TrEMBL record:
It catalyses: [protein]-peptidylproline (omega=180) = [protein]-peptidylproline (omega=0). Keywords: Isomerase, Rotamase. It comes from Marinicella sediminis. Its EC number is 5.2.1.8. It comes from the Bacteria. The keyword Isomerase applies. This is peptidylprolyl isomerase. GO terms for molecular function: isomerase activity. PROSITE patterns: PPIC_PPIASE_2, PROKAR_LIPOPROTEIN.
Amino acid sequence: MNKLYLTIIFTLVLVACTQRQPPSKLIAQNHDSSIMLSAESFAHWSKLRNLNGSANIKSYINGYFLEQVLLQHNQHLSTDNADKIRFQAQEFLYQKAFEHHKQLVIQVLEPDPLTINARFNELKNRPKRPPKLRLYQIFKRYPPNADPKHKRELLDWMTDLRTQINDLDGFKTAATNYSDSQSRLQKGLIGNVPPGLLAAELDELVMQLQPNQMSEVIQSSHGVMLFYCERHISASVLSDQKLMKRATQQVKNKAFNAQWQFLQNNFLTALKLNIKWPKTGEKLIDSEAQVITNQWRLNTRELGWLLGQNLRQKPWKSEFEQSHRQRIEAYAIKRAMFDATGVDIRSSWVLAGESLVTQRSAEHILRQLIAKELSEPHLKDIEDQFQNHPDSYVLPAQYTVSGLAIAINGNRILAHQKAAELLHEINHGSVDFATTANQYSAFADRYPDGLIGTIGKNRLGQVLGIDLMRALLRIDAGQYSGLVETEQGYVWILRLDDVQANRLMTFSEAQGIIRKELLANQKSQLKTAITTKLLQAQDITYYLD
């Protein structure tokens, strides 16, 4: 939902306007004078909304009047939604306090010069980074249970393909068309590869390649492959000045992280936080869940707003509790920091918070007015859109992913050791992945046999998180990732089961997307029509000359 009014105003125009008129000077009013806007009020309103760009000043005045008119339709703002908006505005204030305290810690940091010099010497004495090769790959996997004859046929095929490739462009085309590796999605590009990254038997052969040189066909236990070196990338060596700058920043960051974490822990400890979770299978909205501290408490409704409105209707699962505890603790720390901040500093934040309540209330009312007029798109309109723009609806590459997670539970070293032990046994075939996931994974109930599911490439980050997504995109189908630690407190092992390349959607696949597009277009048109009608009814008179 776009804002109700433009979000920028030209500062010089605003300053000029306020300078040439006394603070009480009227700059606009509606037809019955029920809404009157002075230059002083407009300057204050604009400042709270950070409007500081170039546009017709009347459009910003219209934004003010529109907000006031929408608030008169408060029958479209339920008590529950009004309370939720105010709760979220309070979170805005707590975030301001959080940032304020962070700046206080930064201001008092005085890193020890001896520590900086020691870090400088560590960086200077590090082994220099080796040069890298920018590599491309074509990989053909042996069919399941391939016999020597089939392996020989595949080797001959790859050898013949090699003779047909004359340059990098030809290699990219062949990789895109024929490779079984996930790198085919990037025209065969593996990346900038340093010595030692590839398996030992490959590393010795591939790292000898010169720029614009293609390898001979290489056989492995999994298939046959070709590599192409685009160029060498020389190792960079930093000057002493840059090394000192890096050392200073790293020491500052380490000192800040330690002090900042210490401060947050102190706030949290002082609160004596206690969380009453819903029972497993119980819906949050129907529970008596609450957060209790020695200074305040959150009821079930407020806890639902904090954790996400959609959770209120879902059966509760105990595995939610660890990640949601982090969200609650972060909220508690910020709220404690707000309470510890002086009233004089908090006053400007409070004004901004009240302004935010007004703005979001008006936005909610406008959404309700639009929803009243909104109609479901006709099937014929959806079909016409699909037929007229069939190439616009593409199903992203689909990744079938499995994984198992070991909970850290306060002992990071032990969790990594256990995960490494399991990965070693899985790679050597001494244990079955599905059985191991069912036995050891912290998410065995959610993902039987470790199968997470089939996920579109555009949703990998949303479903898996950034760390797991990056690990997944580095491996090919049938391969396992290394150990991946996530900020949620788990050490993961991922397996990429399969990758399906992107393709054009069928109508049934595109139908829901097209429906949303048509609804979005209709909402935009309704917003324009409704806001225009509301403003025209005010018959605003401007006094800007």
